[in-house]
Amino acid sequence: MRHNGRAPILASQMRPEHLNLRDGEPRMAVCPDCRTWHRLTRSMIMPHRDGVAVPKDGSRRYRDDTAPHKPSNGRRCPGSAQRIDLDITPEQWGEQLLAAETTAAGRRTARPIRKPRPQVAPAAAQMPAATRPLREQLAEHLQSDCTRCKAGRCARVIELRQRIRRTAQIAAAPAAPMYGQLRTALRDHRASCTPCTDGVPCAAGRQLAARMTGIAQEHLRSSLNRSA
Questions:
Q1: Which has the closest alpha carbon to 99: 67, 124, 81?
Q2: Residues 6+ positions from 124 with CB-CB distance below 8 Å
Q3: Is the separation of the CB atoms in 16 and 1 below 8 Å?
Q4: What stretches of the chain show up as alpha helix (H) in DSSP?
Q5: SS3 assignment, position 81
Q6: Cβ neighbour number for residue 195 with a 10 Å cutoff
Q7: By residue range, what is the domain housing residue 131?
Q8: Four-residue CA torsion sign, 57, 58, 63, 68
Q9: Bridge-based pairing state of the strands 37-41 and 44-45
Q10: Predicted confidence (pLDDT) per residue in 32-86, tens digit
Q11: Phi, psi at 49, each rounded to 5°
C-alpha cells in the first residue's frame, strides 16, 4: 500500500477521540475526509470508500444480463492511505483523551460551578505507571454518561482523582536513583526505537516499563503497610 501523497498528520495534533492507541487493540484513526473509523497499517489509514455515488457510464459490469449487479459503496475515499505520524506514546494519548473527556463533561453541566484554580498537570511521561489502572477507571467512568457527573459533582470521580494524586505522590518518592534512571532510559529508548515510536513497544521497552511499574507498586505497598 502506497501513501496518498499528502503530508503526514501528526497524532499529537489530532483530536484524541479520533485515535485509538489502547494497548492490546488495533491502532485505528478517523479518516480526515469521510470521518469514519479505519485501521492503521504501517501508520497509514487502510483504503476504503466514502459512500459517494459514482456516475454510471452506461456500460454493463457483467456479460450475463441475468447476473445481479454488484452493489457499489462509492468511490475510493481521498483519505485512503493517509499517513499518521504517531509522535506520541499511548500513555500521552491516554492523558490527552482523559483531559478532553473531563472538559466535555464539564461543559455538560446544567448549572454554573465554581472550580478551583487549575494546576499545571504533569506530563504523561512523568506520570507513574502505578496510576495507570486508576486513570483508566476514571476515563471509563467519564464515558458512562453518569448523571451525577452531568450535575457537576460525582463522588466516584472525586475519589478516583484523589487516589490518583495519592498514588502519584507515593510512587514519586522512590524516583530517586533507580526509578529516575529507568525513566530516563525508557524515554531515550523510545526516542530511538522504531517499534516503540510506532506505538508497538518492543521487548526492551516493555521490560523497562515493567521494572518501573514494579518499583512503584512495591513502594506503594510498603507505604500503605506503614500507614496501616
A1: 124
A2: 88, 89, 91, 92, 94, 95, 96
A3: no
A4: 90-107, 132-142, 147-151, 155-172, 177-192, 194-197, 203-227
A5: coil
A6: 13
A7: 90-109+125-227
A8: positive
A9: antiparallel
A10: 999 899 999 999 999 998 777 666 655 555 444 444 444 456 788 999 999 999 9
A11: -115, 150
Q: How many domains does the chain have?
A: 2
User: Amino acid letter at 59?
Assistant: S
Distance from C-alpha of 228 to C-alpha of 220, rounded to nearest angstrom: 12
27 within a domain of the structure (yes/no): yes
The verdict on residue 172 lying in a domain is: yes
Determine how β-strand 9-10 pairs with β-strand 84-85.
parallel
What predicted TM-score, i.e. pTM, was given to this entire model? 0.40
Examine the domain organization and report whether 129 and 83 are in the same domain.
no
The reply to whether 141 and 209 lie within a common domain is yes
